[in-house]
Write a structure and sequence with these properties.
By secondary structure, the protein is an alpha/beta fold. Helix content is 48%, strand content 11%.
Length: 305
């Protein structure tokens, strides 16, 4: 069944992220663009590093048709073409990485060449194909000598159906969501069905972070705000009260410089640490950094309350 194969890809991705490796999506056209979109959501949603989950599409920025044009010179996270993958990621692949090939009815020659090189690497392999007809048997470069998990989703619509492309892309998006979300859950970035390691990167996520701290630490909203500000301004000594007059946009700007802002705020809100500001922040951050997973750390903090 497709669900069993999706579970195998999810497990592979989780093992890669937990071991400090990467999850890469490669392909062409709309499916690869969906992989790129899925990867881009990991930083804000789960606090993942910019290089942990990446998507690469054959035509790079050209497929986006964006007003700004090619943004690849803006930095590593903006390098999204297959040529960038070949130049920067391919040669560094290890057994701790998972590479997923995203497929439709046709496999282009550039994608074929890249995939042959991936098959020759030490990375774990997976293929996800979404199609509306069982007769679509376009093969990918041989991976018979490697353990490659193949997910095939067959949709019950004619190949020329009006809704074909919408449904194919929707099906691919569901598979990608299952893989990336499941992998981050297994890495320990979700606690009690709450994404506790989100990045405080916009207005919505700032107020969501306050709510998460309030709920997880069992404190008032005012106490949650204080704890969140202590986490955000951890490298700026001074009274927390001095941050209260600042705009939310100021908190967001400062918060984006740090990782694990919300988990740290949760620990600080529990009151288990020294009353000395610098010491309490440093101790809580050290424990977070050394924990096997955020979930385990937060579970332990609740038991100690």
């Amino acid at each position: 069944m497709a669900s069993e194969q999706v579970a195998r890809v999810l497990q592979s991705a989780a093992e890669s992220l937990s071991r400090g490796g990467h999850l890469y999506y490669v392909g062409s056209d709309a499916f690869a663009l969906l992989g790129l979109i899925d990867a881009s959501e990991m930083v804000d949603t789960f606090g993942a590093g910019h290089d942990e989950v990446r998507g690469f599409v054959e035509d790079g920025w050209q497929i986006c048709d964006n007003n700004q044009g090619d943004l690849s010179l803006c930095g590593s996270p903006f390098k999204m073409s297959l040529s960038h993958f070949t130049e920067h990621q391919l040669g560094a692949l290890t057994e701790n990485d998972t590479v997923v090939l995203l497929l439709g009815d046709v496999v282009s020659e550039p994608v074929t060449r890249v995939w042959r090189s991936v098959v020759a690497s030490r990375a774990k392999l997976a293929e996800v194909r979404v199609s509306c007809t069982a007769s679509d048997t376009t093969s990918t470069p041989s991976s018979r000598d490697r353990d490659c998990t193949s997910v095939s989703v067959l949709l019950p619509f004619a190949k020329n159906s009006t809704f074909r492309y919408v449904l194919e892309q929707f099906a691919m998006k569901l598979v990608l969501n299952a893989v990336s979300t499941g992998a981050n859950i297994m890495k320990g970035r979700v606690f009690g069905n709450t994404m506790v390691n989100l990045t405080v990167s916009n207005n919505k996520l700032y107020f969501r972070s306050v709510g998460i701290v309030r709920e997880m630490a069992g404190v008032s909203e005012e106490e949650a705000v204080v704890a969140l500000h202590r986490s955000i301004y951890r490298d700026q000594p001074g009274s927390v009260e001095s941050t209260m007059h600042k705009l939310v946009s100021d908190h967001i700007k400062a918060g984006k410089r740090h990782q694990m802002v919300v988990p740290l705020a949760i620990l600080l809100a529990t009151g288990q640490y020294s009353s000395v500001e610098v010491e309490s922040v440093a101790k809580a951050m050290a424990q977070l950094s050394s924990a096997a997973s955020l979930r385990q750390m937060l579970q332990a903090s609740r038991h100690n309350e």
